[in-house]
Design goal:
The protein is mainly alpha-helical. It is 56% helix and 5% strand. It starts with 5 loop residues before the first strand and ends with a helix.
């Protein structure tokens, strides 16, 4: 069993929980996490403005007040007392975002996850993965510091209502997360596990080739050796739109259903990443 273990990003493990086709699983994760971020984006923006304002007000009143008091300047205590007001607001703002995720100041039990559609089969499979990660008996996930040191995290990291953000590739999405202790936690997470055994334990049901509305595999194969794709500069802006246009043209010629522009863009992004990785390997 041990020789089937792999060290993989949590995002890849989650993709395999969703689909036996890893690329399709990643595209589904991008869709799910983009929808989650869309639900809380405005709320997070308002929270961030309130946090920044309270922090700034605390910095220009409380800190100078403490400094004046220590220096024995008359009126320093009054300035410091005034500074306690925005500082109290700062604590309240921080507490609000923690409580929003964990239900209280302490991460004591799993919260109901935020999804655009909780009944989505992909979201349900993702929750089966998180249900395992919430158990103390499951192999612990970890992140790697800039110095290359592994830091293991416990099951409470996956109790929060915004836990889907852990499997997003986009840092703005991951940055909405608070750790159970401390503040922001946007690290990429890894696990050393046998993914197939984990899927069986979770009783997840990845898409294993059931009839699909959109045939992504044939669409991608249509781009192999395509002159536009071969000539593409991966560092140039607009490439994602160009590939999405090619995919859309292919679907249109087949006369079937055409995926939404968002879905096409997500898949085009994955294709560009593969192209960039392959070209880097050749150089």
């Amino acid at each position: 069993m041990d020789n089937q273990k792999e060290v993989l990003p949590l995002r890849i493990i989650a993709a395999r929980f969703i689909s036996s086709n890893e690329l399709e699983g990643l595209a589904e994760l991008d869709r799910i996490t983009a929808d989650v971020y869309g639900l809380i984006q405005t709320k997070y923006l308002v929270w961030w403005i309130a946090f920044s304002a309270a922090l700034f007000a605390s910095a220009i009143t409380l800190l100078p007040g403490i400094g004046l008091t220590l220096a024995g300047v008359k009126g320093g205590e009054i300035v410091a007392a005034i500074g306690l007001i925005p500082f109290g607001l700062l604590l309240a703002v921080v507490s609000y975002w923690r409580i929003l995720q964990y239900g209280s100041m302490r991460a004591s039990q799993p919260q109901k996850a935020v999804y655009a559609n909780p009944d989505d089969p992909a979201a349900r499979n993702l929750e089966r993965l998180f249900a395992l990660l919430q158990l103390e008996t499951t192999p612990r996930a970890f992140y790697v510091t800039r110095n290359g040191v592994k830091r293991y995290i416990n099951e409470r990291y996956f109790f929060g209502s915004l836990r889907a953000a852990y499997v997003s590739k986009e840092s703005p999405v991951r940055e909405v997360l608070f750790a159970p202790i401390g503040f922001w936690f946007s690290r990429e997470i890894f696990m050393d596990v046998d993914v197939d055994a984990l899927i069986a334990q979770a009783k997840a049901k990845p898409n294993r080739g059931a009839p699909k509305t959109y045939d992504y595999t044939d669409a991608v194969m249509s781009l192999i050796e395509h002159p536009v794709v071969r000539a593409i500069d991966v560092n140039k802006r607009g490439n994602q739109t160009q590939i999405a246009d090619l995919l859309e043209d292919w679907y249109r010629t087949k006369g079937g259903s055409i995926p939404s522009r968002t879905q096409l863009s997500l898949y085009a992004k994955l294709i560009l990443e593969v192209i960039a990785k392959n070209r880097a390997a050749k150089s």
